[in-house]
Amino acid sequence: MLQSPAAARRGQSGGVPRLSSLLSSRFFGEGCHTPTADGAAPAATGTSVRGASERLRGSSRHAEPGAGSTAAPARAERRGGGTVAAARPESRTPGRCGRRGRSRARDAALRRRRGRRTGGGSLGAELLRCGRRSSGGGGSAPAGEGGGRLRRRVRATRGSGAAAEAAGGGEGGRRRKGAGSSAAWSARRCCCRHFPAGRSPTRELDPLPETLDSPLSLAGGVSTRLSVSARRAGGNFSHFSGEGFGPPRSGGSACGSLRGGRTLASDRGAARGARVRRPRREQRGGAGPAAAEMKLSRQFTVFGSAVFCVVIFSLYLMLDRGHFDHPKSPRREGTFPKVSLWILPVYQGQLSILQEKIDHLERLLAENNEIISNIRDSVINLSESVKDGQKNPEAVNFGPRSVSELFPSASVLLAVDSEDCLFASKSRSHSSGVQMLDVYDILPFDNPDGGVWKQGFDITYNENEWDSEPLQVFVVPHSHNDPGWLKTFDDYFRDQTQHILNNMVIKLQEDNRRKFIWSEISYFSKWWDGIDSQKKDAVKRLIKDGQFEIVTGGWVMPDEASSHYFALIDQLIEGHQWLEKNLGVKPKSGWAIDPFGHSPTMAYLLKRAGFSKMLIQRIHYSVKKHFATQKTLEFFWRQNWDLGSSTDILCHMMPFYSYDVPHTCGPDPKICCQFDFRRLPGGRISCPWRVPPEAIHAGNVQHRAWIILDQYRKKSKLFRTKVLLAPLGDDFRYTESSEWDQQYQNYQKLFDYMNSRPEWHVKAQFGTLSDYFEALLKESNLGEKSSNSLFPVLSGDFFTYADRDHHYWSGYFTSRPFYKRLDRVLESYIRAAEILYSLALVQSSKSEKMSVFPSVDNYKLLTEARRNLGLFQHHDAITGTAKDWVVVDYGTRLFHSIMNLKKVIIDSVHILILKDKSAYSYDTATPLLKMDDVQASQDSLPRKTVIKLTLQPRYLLIHNPTEQERFSVVSVNVNSPRVKLLSPLGKPVTVQISAVWDGATTVSHEAYQVSFVAHLPPLGIGVYQLLEDESSEAVLADYNIYVRNSRQEKPDRVFKIKEMQHAVDNIILENAYMKLWFSGMSGLLEKINSKEDGKNHQMKVEFAWYGTTSNRDKSGAYLFLPDGDAKPYIFTDPPTIRVAHGTIFSEVVCFFHHVTHTMRLYKVQGLEGQSLEVSNIVDIRGEYNRELAMRISSDINSQNRFYTDLNGYQIQPRLTMSKLPLQANIYPMTTMAYIQEVGIRLTLHSAQSLGVASLKNGQLEVIMDRRLMQDDNRGLGQGVQDNKITANVFRLLLERRHGTDVNEEKAPVSFPSLLSHMTSLFLNHPVIPMTTNADSGVPELISTFSPLMSSMPCDMHIVNLRTIQAKVDTKPSDEAALILHRKGFDCKFSNRDTGLLCSTTQGKIKVHKLFSKFRVESLTPTSLSLMNSPPDARNISEINMSSMEINTFRIRLR
């Protein structure tokens, strides 16, 4: 039913309607729809005038997207007078433009009344008739859109798959000018007249009398149709008028593309496919208007075209001036394209009406500036993708839903290039030589006694084997220095490390045959800063002469299980940048002897940094034995997903138990220990085998040399060449001057004797790691093409590590989870601070006034934070395997850096968001902004500060640290429930007020939580305003509290709170995507209904306890040794359950004794509404030898397969094996783990690293905290008893898969979906809210800071934008490192509803299209850590990356 214009204009402002429905409904009328990705013409709508007007005003009228649909939903909800619900087109066949809501009798009556019968022909036939009429009635339409394009569209409606190119007109969607143009417009007019399916914009803008049956009333003249070209100048973008919005898609209805809006239906199932209801007054077949219009002379069309051109030009100028000369109309600063309006040919008698409509439209556009602004990012992305030659983009769109929802997105068509989908499918079918999954499959994992080499076998050899080619032995002295473990970093340095390095300088200079290698730059840089220039020169000489080598050269030797690839790269850059600046050294070889298991991610990062060789040590003893028997201990390590060999890196695996001297010279530790000359009698340490070393002298040299040569020969039998590596060192070795003499002098005597005996066929010497690899490469002729065959190719990872028996090191995947979470918080802050600082630095250089920006001070804070984050990546830090006081030292460093980074962020945002840059002033005492949370100490959880409201607005700034335009729910605490929130454009925003609780059931009235959907530009800042308002329309959350004994309390003065007893009935939460059932007794999740397919899925959440074994060896910081399967978490009394229902989110909170468990469902459209937020506050401080796990049990038939990520970079398939003990089936999860079957995938996203398993079919289980009372005999000397109250945050995502087969499940590689990638990104990089300090006078701020031209392509992630240090002092340079990662993703998921305003572009980005506020002066490719530049490095204008690639560029911005 129609309403008055006044009624139509009422309604709240809030979420932004999606682009396609906005433009199509606004300018074409409600009946014109964009075709779906699969070719179906979605349901059209006849909405009330109120609905149309509200959409024009950007109001928050939202409808829930429906299953199976890809159509753009109009923003509509049940409201007041008119009910607008959505139908769900599900058919994949092209449909008619109109609706079929009337009976045949009514159709016949209408046709008789109009004096003409309509043939029952196909849509294609009617379109052809339109084409002929519009082209003058001839057989073939003129060139251009009126002819060829129309017929091509007709072919598309008949099922042709080539419609994409046809709709593009052969020129990527660019409209040709010429004779066919007016004919094309006529054809389109004819099409929409034949299938009107709704009202014209004329009636929406200024409703005509209700007696009119048609959008084209002949009696009253002809109404005007409007259309839009949202095309950027020079960009090649599809027109709304002909192709729909976005790149052309196959199989779409030509007329359907003109239509947009909603169907009028009372229930979700009212319309199927193209068969949807039609408004009562709508015409079928369009007989009357068509006949009348055909009487119009072609002269009118020609004249109309002329008028059309004049009006276009006038309107363009008006809008241009209105858009850019409107100071009070805030907009995203300088980043949005002009939107030009084109008007269809008009008829002579209607010019005055047309003028009226233009004026009205201009006013509406001014009011809707925000919406038009939001178009910008997607237009650029999509137009670029069209220009760059996309052939068949799978344009995806939001589907209509029937439940009222918040729509926080102006929707666009998410275009995924078909080329971008090939990578995942090719990777699945591709396989390298040795797959670690296959190795695990064939190994028996038994542990027979191997003799002197307990975990191996007896090695024999023939003494004549080296007659033709001597054995080359490289003894490599080293000292493994943990940057914190049993002592803090500083204590180790003071007591041991500085002495090692001081002695190194002296002792290596005594004999030029001596060699030494060093790894950890954290220690080396601290030592370097304290030595004199004479020593520094000596070090540089030793490096130049090849006596001293830096290996790996990272800040630390990082853990490879719990560390995120952001931090791995960051510590590598920090080390390499320090080396380049201070030593001019470029490490060539990787050295990782102590991380507890090894990840291929680290191999990839080293390869990208320019390394070609690496060494690893801690690998499962059964795997080492297997590789030794196969002589595959040296191999090319290739990434699972690599389709070629570009990621190959030569890797040496040490064959024995440890990296200490007894386990490195050969298979017999009893003998090798006798050649560790630090253990000579009288020293502090001795050999546990009770046979001490002997000092070498002339009387024993022959015998001793022969004994160790025997070990060297046996060890060499495990390798394929006659070049042998024998490391010589251990933890913190060579501290004292005497040890240098003991080791070097005795070994030199052995070498001299061996080398003097030609019949022994051996050449032994001290060497560096590079000396060994160079000899190896020379021996194996690796320079020649055919040489690769000498070493096998291996793919996969080396988790979970076991060093003996069933002692699996899976405990450290979870140990000290509080600090694993704190690490991830610091990573998010450091990335945000790096990017904002880099931009602020450029901004500050633009004028003298801004030079007071504290660039040097803040750069020091950044550098300190980088180094503290790097230090924590050490393999005894993030692992949770250090002494209690060392953990406190690490935590204090992380905590201080978080506070310092908040200052860097605040200072940087200040200069970027200031409207009048000349008014910039810096006052360290009273900063302009402050963060909205505060953390009291290094071991406490952060808490929200309370923002004090007044009647005067207070700025609330929200920074989006991701490179994607984003709609995120933001929650802040204020001191009053009477709150009003204004958007960056000054419009009221829908908010939900929730209670802040003291405990489970008591409301605090000191603070109230305000939640709203923030719309933020990529890497940008949105400036909102908060104020107290007595007439606030904020919606309060309602609460149901389930308690054991409900008591009648006096009602709360603000919130509606209902107390009740536990019930067997389920608690139900619901949004547009899913419906959830929770137990009324425990409050835990039991079932999920996915609305996309309407299926129910069992999804049972529960908690469980693990104990530790009763054997002598028990669980500790490293080891997980459980006492069998987990025991259910038993609670004698049901927990208190608090259920909140709100407009933005609803949640269920369960209060157990050891865990407060929250499941929150966001009632918003797009990404955040599609997954379930899970958070646990865990407290097991009173427990004894127990570990708490959260288990999710589903009905997914996962067949013992599951998938975990490695370092947040790639996915590794896993197989739960019954032949292995329970603890061996636990794996590290850095950011996600999933299980799947052919049609569905369940992903658990994590905001912290933890141990994860899938011990039974359909299960995912994550260990959340562990409290252990004893040491596990790995050197730490204590248990884990310093537990904190720990917050674990997850997201649970259920996705439908399509087009998969059973064979895929066995592939060695897997990829997340785009939605999954984005969910992980948003979870790990939450928005950062800031408020202005109330006391200080606040200068005027711009409404939005938007540094990027648009969202980055969906699969492109900005890892960092990191300012590079100047070469001379500690100041920043004018260069930054831009690090990009192109993610691999699985296309076999629906991309339609991601809520993302991005596309994929085959890894191509135009450099000048990157930034909007800044100019890229130069962009030069370099190696990952900026250490090596390619020989052809030059300034580039286009970035071009392959899937999974991580690239670094040196960038200069102006």
Descriptive keywords:
9-stranded antiparallel β-sheet; alpha+beta; 1454 residues; 29 helices; 11-stranded mixed β-sheet; 54 strands
Distance between the termini: 57 Å
Structural class by helix and strand composition: alpha+beta
Q: Strand order across the biggest sheet? A: 28-27-34-35-36-37-46-43-42-39-40
**What percentage of amino acids are in beta strands?**
15-25%
Radius of gyration: 35 Å
Question: Helix share of residues?
Answer: 25-40%
- Number of H/I helices: 29
Determine the mean pLDDT. Answer: 80
Runs with pLDDT <50, length 5+? 1-103, 114-297, 320-348, 380-405, 407-412
- DSSP strand tally: 54
- Give the CA-based shape: globular
Q: Report the biggest beta sheet as strand number plus sense, adding barrel if it closes.
A: 11 strands, mixed
What report would you give on this structure?
The protein is α+β, with helices and mostly antiparallel strands and 1454 residues long. 27% of the residues lie in helices and 21% in strands. The chain has 29 helices and 54 strands. The strands form 12 sheets. An 11-stranded mixed β-sheet has the order 28-27-34-35-36-37-46-43-42-39-40. It is globular. The two termini are 57 Å apart.
